[in-house]
């Protein structure tokens, strides 16, 4: 009696576990600096053991962890993917000075140039981090104390002798180009604050009825075709130049000077030829990719480098980098091994080839039916796209109808069901002749093959007339 009671108690304790049903999951959690892959974004219900994938937000890049979470009995596993902001990194060395960073060199942040004592900054005092890297002209620190930069007065005659900075106390006298007149002080002085006092004047157009062209002057310099150069900004608005006056040219964005003078001269009403030659800037290698490589159209300004992963690996990040004025745009993408989800389970089937995660490219699994007939592919494998080569097969019970042939009987199978591959032998009753095969078998589509025979009454010939 005691043994019976103990057995009932064990059964009661075991019953709830044996009847437990796996629970579905609701929409996956949100994590900082990540986003759920688009194909899962609108779904609100996920089945047990189903997996979903995350990626990093824009302006962020993955630096460790897995992209996958899985639904386990109504709860999602924790996402281990960690994303960090894209950083431009170190801006380089500033001779005779140093760079001071606004933050961690993230997109939108600035780096400021600070010169050592006794040196003066030339150019903008900052650069900005963009997706293509540090943007802006690289500053420089020149030897000397407080100075004033050469003032840019449009439509004035520049007589600075190539001086880019002036010492405190030095004066500048301005003369306007032909067709323009001064509006403001003709002379200005560099003061101790590094500013010109009074402010430099403007050169404004002289009314048409007062213009007196000088002999030998030149008009606007003719454009230079197919040279990748352009007239310096300070000369763009001028329409007249005196004889002996020079204008200067710069290389277009993405090009660098490769020889020849940057200036041309107005000589008695004619412009001398421009000798400046500009070539495309060189970006060099875009870097190395583990389990992949870059395919280049070239390594100069305007060219592209496209990342191609080895077979069985999938690209994460932007595939294409562009050779820009400041080097290659963006960052190198990553080639991750193609991973398939766990192979689908099939009712009444056994799976061989199961392994611990992950199922990578060329992993193979095989199905075999414990009961019924396998319909579909017996063997499937993980493709280079991270998907299984075919849907999972099914184990179906396939039967053929009873082989009812009039005037006949059959042998070979005495089960109530005629399953796939069942074979029977048909014989006609006495006095009947068979038309068709005497042996048939049950095919996987539930038909007898070959077709069932027919039994026809034997005809007797009267030999006596």
From TrEMBL:
It comes from Pundamilia nyererei. Residues 1-19 form the signal peptide. Residues 23-85, 86-143, 146-205, 216-280, 281-337, 338-397, 398-457 form the Sushi domain. InterPro entries: SEZ6_CSMD_C4BPB_Regulators, Sushi/SCR/CCP_sf, Sushi_SCR_CCP_dom. PANTHER family: PROTEIN CBR-CLEC-78. This is Complement receptor type 1-like. Keywords: Disulfide bond, Repeat, Signal, Sushi. It comes from the Eukaryota. Disulfide bonds join 56-83, 176-203, 251-278, 428-455. Pfam families: Sushi (PF00084).
